[in-house]
Automatic annotation (TrEMBL):
This is Glycerol-3-phosphate dehydrogenase [NAD(P)+]. The active site is at residue 189. Belongs to the NAD-dependent glycerol-3-phosphate dehydrogenase family. It comes from Glycocaulis albus. SUPFAM superfamilies: 6-phosphogluconate dehydrogenase C-terminal domain-like, NAD(P)-binding Rossmann-fold domains. Pathway: Membrane lipid metabolism; glycerophospholipid metabolism. It is found in: Cytoplasm. Sn-glycerol 3-phosphate binds at residues 106, 134, 136, 189, 242, 252-254. The gene is gpsA. Residues 6-157 form the Glycerol-3-phosphate dehydrogenase NAD-dependent N-terminal domain.
Length: 331
């Protein structure tokens, strides 16, 4: 296996993961969707569009040519969830069968309601699938601040190879085998972080914030278990860990989106002002369709889906949640 890592997607997270790999002694080829981003990384060793102000290791080689990843021993895929299918299809001719491919994006495909591992299975069936997820802000990882994540792979030796390529003292992947649990944790926490931002923006208080995390965690776990995940996965880094991080810091794009919604800004204005992805906005309606299909009750995610789809105002959604009948905590 080549010791070079291929990374598809040079947004903040793909760039930070390239930096984590460099810290682990692994050179990488970082594919950028925008040719000018690839050129800037090679010329200035910085990603001025998506990760401004962080000096990158010269072992990171950027490209806009998909064929350049054919020689890499493993791939990380870090493209936004709604662009995952088209991106993977563009790389189909360049994958060597048996290559470990770790999905690092957090979202559910709208329309099909597929998880990213389903999309990978349909587009690159000869890959060995893995999921990397957990509490990790790109800027923290790129700066080398201590971070721990879940690396889920049912092929333990492929998982260990991936961990050897990216793990270091400051970036610590923990091996797991539950891809569905890792994916649902990462996808649903983005939706719940929008709700947490709304709680903050509407000044509903710390008690409401804590209640939201606990009841949101119950929703996340119910959906994951209904889809076949192990309950314990959700108590780990990729579930509760990421939920706590993302619901607690406006550094999160999802939480900051909720904060602005809670303060009265329109979703259109919030989205128009950013060039970075806010996965929870597209994933919220997909989560609700998936929950309905599996008869899973997810009232907080439902409220977020109604708000981002323009079907309910922030106040109407909050009032509807608070008017729900009292029920058992374990329901
Ligand atoms: N940023 C983080 O801290 C972080 C951490 C963990 C996971 N993630 C996940 O990583 C994924 C990527 O997020 P990010 O923060 O790196 O992105 P970003 O917001 O920094 O950048 C947007 C990305 O979208 C890409 N893009 C735009 N249009 C595209 C198209 N048509 N086809 C393919 N790509 C296109 C851009 O090239 C860029 O890579 C998301 O699923 C996110 O949830 C992000
Ligand atoms: O900025 P967000 O909300 O996309 O969150 C980034 C990471 O997923 C946090 O683990």
């Amino acid at each position: 296996m080549s010791a070079r890592l291929g990374i598809i997607g040079a947004g903040a997270w793909g760039t930070a993961l390239a930096q984590a790999a460099a810290r682990a002694g692994t050179p990488s080829t970082l594919w950028a969707f925008e040719p000018e981003v690839a050129a800037a990384i090679n010329e200035t060793h910085e990603n001025p569009v998506f990760l401004k102000g962080i000096k990158l290791d010269p072992a990171i080689r950027a490209t806009n040519n998909a064929a350049d990843l054919s020689a890499c021993g493993a791939w990380l895929v870090v493209t936004p969830a709604q662009h995952m299918r088209a991106s993977l299809e563009a790389f189909r001719a360049h994958l060597r069968p048996g290559t470990p491919v770790a999905l690092c994006s957090k979202g559910i495909e709208r329309g099909s309601l597929k998880l990213m591992s389903n999309v990978l299975g349909e587009t690159l069936p000869h890959a060995v699938p893995a999921v990397l997820s957990g509490p990790s802000f790109a800027a923290d990882v790129a700066r080398g601040l201590p971070t721990a994540v879940t690396l889920a792979c049912t092929d333990a030796s492929a998982g260990e190879k991936l961990i050897a390529m990216i793990g270091s003292a400051s970036f610590r992947p923990y091996l797991a085998d539950d891809l569905i649990g890792a994916e649902i944790g990462g996808s649903v926490k983005n939706v719940l972080a929008i709700a947490a931002g709304i709680v903050e923006g509407r000044e509903l208080g710390r008690s409401a914030h804590a209640a939201l995390i606990a009841r949101g965690f119950a929703e996340m776990t119910r959906l994951a278990v209904a889809l076949g995940a192990q309950r314990e996965t959700l108590t780990g880094l990729c579930g509760l860990g990421d939920l706590v991080l993302t619901c607690s810091s406006p550094q999160s794009r999802n939480m900051s989106c909720g904060l602005a919604l809670g303060r009265g800004e329109s979703l259109a204005d919030i989205m128009a002002a950013r060039n970075s992805v806010t996965e929870g906005v597209a994933t919220a309606p997909a989560v609700m369709e998936l929950a309905a299909r599996h008869h899973v009750d997810m009232p907080i995610c439902e409220a977020v889906a109604a708000i981002v789809s323009g079907k309910a105002s922030v106040d109407a959604a909050i009032n509807a949640l608070l008017a729900r009948p009292f029920t058992s905590e374990s329901a």
